[in-house]
Amino acid sequence: MSDEFSRIARYFAPLAGKEGRGLTDDAAVLTPPPGRDLVLTVDQMLEDVHFLTRDDPALIARKLLRRNLSDLAAMGAVPLGYLLTTALPEGVGEDWLAGFSQGLAQDQKFFNISLFGGDSSSSRGKISLSATLIGHTAPGAALSRNGARAGDGIWVTGTIGDAALGLRARLGELEDPSGFLTARSLLPEPRMGLALAGLVSAAIDISDGLVQDLGHMCQGAGLSAVIRAGLVPASAAAAACGAGALEARLTGGDDYELLLAVPPGNGEALKAACGDLPVTKIGMFQAGAGVHVLNDSGAMLQFTRPGWRHF
Amino acid sequence: MSDEFSRIARYFAPLAGKEGRGLTDDAAVLTPPPGRDLVLTVDQMLEDVHFLTRDDPALIARKLLRRNLSDLAAMGAVPLGYLLTTALPEGVGEDWLAGFSQGLAQDQKFFNISLFGGDSSSSRGKISLSATLIGHTAPGAALSRNGARAGDGIWVTGTIGDAALGLRARLGELEDPSGFLTARSLLPEPRMGLALAGLVSAAIDISDGLVQDLGHMCQGAGLSAVIRAGLVPASAAAAACGAGALEARLTGGDDYELLLAVPPGNGEALKAACGDLPVTKIGMFQAGAGVHVLNDSGAMLQFTRPGWRHF
Question: Chain B window 115-134: which residues touch A at a Cβ cutoff of 8 Å?
Fold first, then answer.
């Protein structure tokens, strides 16, 4: 294994934008876009928590960026670039780093971002990764998860539950003949670039699971949510898993679709703003507290756990 | 152990500035100081690499912030705030978190910074921490490690080698009757707030070791460096370790003093800018390549390794 400095020069310096100064300085320098607010977020990906040791390093890299990009999408921000940390145990070799940096390069190009800086370390334990993403919005225009109002519709982009079922498929617990669910688990599609400002009163990305993330919105607004399980959009592959997959779909994390609070009358404008991306109304915010999931006959469903949380 | 969300509410939300929005949103929102450049840096601290499992969590927290603050100091930047990641194995309890967050609070107050956001996760391995620090400078005024010119003097702040000897003391390999060396290893003093712009042509903080970090400056400028070992300032406690400690002092990391390239004639102004903080000329940049360390009779010293690097 090459040493720290030659690894940085070989795999990471080519990814650096001008802010990164060739990754030879102690820090990055960013001239912020004039008159804009900056939006900053950080997420980790840890071996055996967020990915499996055998996973393709290029997909790990792209998911690391995409999970963070999804946080920017939920704030209505345009991404600029990122700082990266890697902590790698001795057994991780050049092949892994080559794949990992190729994955970063691919998604940097796709999302028009560059590497600003980072820190690489050895690890005495498992692989540990993080990315800090920096984006921008018009001043005061950043969305919040806490702004929902009673009477707002609850809408979601895309389809819900694919990633949770995909993780089961990757663990051999489920058939995934098309590979669609597996792909949704390995490589989310952050919903960047939707012009949501003025159309929604609150937004969050679904990372912990629909029920739990909806609970965060309720808590932030002091409201309850009522959704119809039958209205929650399923992909064809998820639908093929049958009714028994409902709880996994509604409480499983990693979808990175957007969950939106939409004032009455804004639904058509929201659909127009989302273009080809389907967006579906699944319920409504009301006075009260908690998330209530109803079946087709209006009875309340109970789940054993609302979603992903770290102990 | 409480769950992720109650831990965030209890230990970290009280540390958040307005940019952190109570740590309930997907990202932080920062209105940059108008007309300033932003300076961004990230550093990790990993169990068994950067700290020992038994170390006081408050000191771990403060060193995490200070290592990053030192990077801002080396760029001439004023700190604003930070994002934090924590990955904690199941055995890490409330006491550890209470101490860790108290350490953050203490240094937030001391350095006038606040928590902007973060990510907390469980870990299947060891404790893994990172902080992304955000600061600002006048436009175009950020310092670089790469600007040294032939004829510039090589200067250092403070005393060199205390932290490396302090680590040996913590490992029981060395006597440290005053506790000074141990303290310098556990809690560095980043050299914030020195008005270095215009006085120095290059700056770096000594994190990997004097010889190695000086090598980075040489490489960035296409120059060589000649320093006199006898001129490198030693604390009384380090001097008491004797001549046998010289290599450890000059190649050991974690001092977080500043290493500066100072054009001829700027020495007195530099001393004035540093006020009570001693600053010492130890050598000169010249044409050529590499770092040459001379003893008092002008003979070149050889070290077995120049400084800290990760495999």
Answer: 116-126, 128, 130, 132-134
**Per-residue pLDDT reduced to its tens digit, B75-91:** 999 999 999 999 999 98
Q: In this structure, are residues B249 and B234 in contact, taking their beta carbons and an 8 Å threshold?
A: yes
**Tokens coding B298:** 């002008």
Domain A4-137: CATH architecture, name and number where available:
2-Layer Sandwich (3.30)
Cα A174 to Cα A154: distance, rounded to the nearest angstrom: 30
Percent above pLDDT 90 for chain A: 92
Question: Across the interface, do B137 and A29 touch by the CB < 8 Å criterion?
Answer: yes
pLDDT tops 50 at residue A1? no
Show residues of chain A in contact with B133, CB under 8 Å: 27
In the numeric block, the tokens 């790698």 are attached to A88
Q: Rounded to two decimals, what is the model's pTM?
A: 0.95
Closest-CA distance of chain B to residue A240, Å: 32
Q: Which of B19, B26, B75 to mutate to test the interface with A (most CBs of A within 10 A)?
A: B26
Nearest to B25 by CA among A15, A301, A220, A16: A220
In contact, B75 and B136? CB cutoff 8 Å: no
The ranges assigned to domains in chain A are 4-137, 153-301
Question: Residues B31, B134: contact at Cβ < 8 Å?
Answer: no
Helices (H), chain B: 4-7, 57-74, 94-111, 162-170, 180-186, 210-221, 236-239, 246-251, 267-274
Contact B43/A at CB under 8 A: yes
Contact A205 B123 (CB under 8 A): no
Interface test with B, best of A6, A23, A40, A50 (most B CBs within 10 A): A40
- Average pLDDT over chain A, rounded to an integer: 95
Q: What interface predicted TM-score (ipTM) does this complex get?
A: 0.94
CA atoms within 13 A on the CB side of A231: 18
- The closest CB to that of A42, out of B41, B48, B85, belongs to B85
Question: Hunting for tokens 């006898």 — which residue is that?
Answer: B230
User: Residue A5 — very low, low, confident or very high, per pLDDT cuts 50/70/90?
Assistant: confident
What pLDDT does residue A305 have?
Answer: 76
**Which of A299-303, B105-109, B210-214 has the weakest average pLDDT?**
A299-303
Domain B153-301 bears CATH identifier 3.40.50.620: no
The stretches of A29-145 forming alpha helices (DSSP H) are 57-74, 94-111
CB contact under 8 A, A29 and B75: yes
pLDDT digits (tens, 9 = 90+) for A222-232: 999 999 999 99
C-alpha distances (whole Å) from B242 to each of A197, B177, B230, B239 are 66, 14, 12, 6
Q: Spell out the residues 6+ positions from residue B273 whose beta carbon is closer than 8 angstroms to its own.
A: B194, B195, B196, B199
